[in-house]
Amino acid sequence: MAEVNAMMIRAGCNFVAKNPVLDLKRSGFGMPVFGRTVWCNRRTTGRVGNGVKAVMQVDLEDAERLRRLEGLEATLGLDIVAERELKEKGFLGMRKTKLVCTIGPACSAIEDLEKLALEGMNIARLNMCHNSREWHCDVIRKIKKLNEGKGFCISVMIDTEGSQIHVVDHGAPSSIKVEDGSIWLFTAEKFEGSRPFTVQASYEGFSEGIQVGDSIVIDGGMATFEVIEKIGNDLSCRCTDPGLFLPRAKCSFWRDGRVVVRNHESPTLSRKDWSDIEFGIAEGVDFIALSFVNSADPVKHLKNFLSTKPAKSVRVLAKIESLESLQNLEEIIEASEGIMVARGDLGVEIPLEQIPAVQEEITSVCRELNKPVIIASQLLESMVEYPTPTRAEVADVSEAVRQYADALMLSGESAIGSYGQKALSVLQMASCRMELWSREENRENFLPHYQLGVSLHDRIAEEICNSAAELANRLSVDAIFVLTTQGHMASLLSRNRPRPPIFALTDDDSTRMALNLQWGVFPLRIELSEDIEANIWRGIELVKSKGLVKQGDSVLVVSEISPARAASMASQSIQLKTIV
């Protein structure tokens, strides 16, 4: 018990031990454990209320107490894929890295969406650069139908187009191959349909300052053209690097090995972006990812705007895809509720060889600041056309998992590729294998801890979660259960990357959907009351009734009741329980 006491002392509390004799080795987790309770009481003043109570309890309770509680007919809302994975692989076999799929023409039918869901999709991403408003609305409603009717728990993210003006479209509904030496006209002229070897640009002044001899790089290198003639505001170009040309592709202009600096100012959020955001709010999306965020200001602006809306809470993510965003990285992460590392566009702005180190740095800072991070762009790019990935792509995916990224994202692989389901399967298998290796190497023990909390209440919550994760690892518990209203304690536990899965029990639907992005967190729905003990017992009994835990399993329970719920008392606790 010296180790247990030492870990609890980190919260700076005074402990009183009751029934001081406890032999963990002799008792084991599958047998009754009696008589050791460690209590910590602190009084705080101010906005938190009259007090904060931190509790660690090692005890065995009578399950009959819970059976007398009402409301046990409630549904848990655990994703059926996670439930299946738990039953087949056990607690430690559950995949903790989350998977995001971009939805496009190749997977927008409800049958295809269900296949992706069954393969492990946690979040469906809709890129507002593509397709019509009606199309997006139809996809969102299909996903909600799968959630409600099939038992999935899939969150929805929309991705704003952003202020990048260099968007070009060849007019075809799908990708086309550009041949070496072919001549193409890039024009700002607006016309319906498509014309042979003609590309529409999204901005009338796209060719301003561009010279003959400059290069146009499509989607970070998918294809390259050289400007051979300027015809008014149009550009006649020759393909110098053949490749795949996607609909509404992004392009950048290069001169002498460097990106051409354009002398124009445009807001991060365009008029179209605001319209798309209003649409997303009306349709009840869970995340909004802002494109081309260069400072914290647009993130704060959007969050302030969302706070005025009566609809459910929507989380704001920032996409890191420019040199300027890297220069303001920490302030952007602090302002956001998550980060997407858009490596494709970022690779246009910085040298290619810097991408791996920058990715690792962003991932590390996000974990330090307790913000989820998505690694995106070209994870399995070859699978847009081919049924198997390259070994280098698998190594790239595994490296992102090794860095403890919260989520991996498919873009064109799922949106327009012929093998989206297979690509998702590759992410799933690679993630599970690398997570197993990380556990075997005890890599979570080498993760540094940085204090986030400023107030006493926040610092205690942080220390409780740090200690809970350490206890869970040292005592080899089967699972961690956290009762949380807004998801804060669940995210603090996730930040520690513990070995057991984290089951977050909440009564707030927006919190439940937001936790889909957190590493190792599996959100469940349960009615919570102000009685912490009743909440704990109700949660355990519901999980037990589903067959997700069995006799002899040991679970660490971390509970949180916010000051708003508990009137003048805010409470957090840690309890170790054995299922009987």
A few lines on this structure:
The chain is an alpha/beta fold and 580 residues long. Helices cover 33% and strands 24% of the residues. The strands form 4 sheets. Strands 1-2-3-26-25-22-23-24 form an 8-stranded mixed β-sheet, with helices on both faces.
Written account of the structure:
Pfam families: PK, PK_C. Pathway: Carbohydrate degradation; glycolysis; pyruvate from D-glyceraldehyde 3-phosphate: step 5/5. This is Pyruvate kinase. By secondary structure, the chain is an alpha/beta fold. The chain folds into 4 domains: 68 residues, no CATH class; 243 residues, Phosphoenolpyruvate-binding domains (TIM Barrel), CATH 3.20.20; 93 residues, PK beta-barrel domain-like (M1 Pyruvate Kinase, Domain 3, Beta Barrel); 131 residues, Pyruvate kinase, C-terminal domain (Pyruvate Kinase, Chain: A, domain 1), CATH 3.40.1380. Helices cover 33% and strands 24% of the residues. The strands form 4 sheets. It has an 8-stranded mixed β-sheet with strand order 1-2-3-26-25-22-23-24, with helices on both faces. It has an 8-stranded parallel beta barrel with strand order 4-5-6-17-18-19-20-21, surrounded by 8 helices. A 7-stranded mixed beta barrel has the order 7-10-9-13-12-11-15. β4, α5 and β5 form a beta-alpha-beta unit. α13 crosses α15 and α16 crosses α17. The protein is elongated, with a radius of gyration of 26 Å.
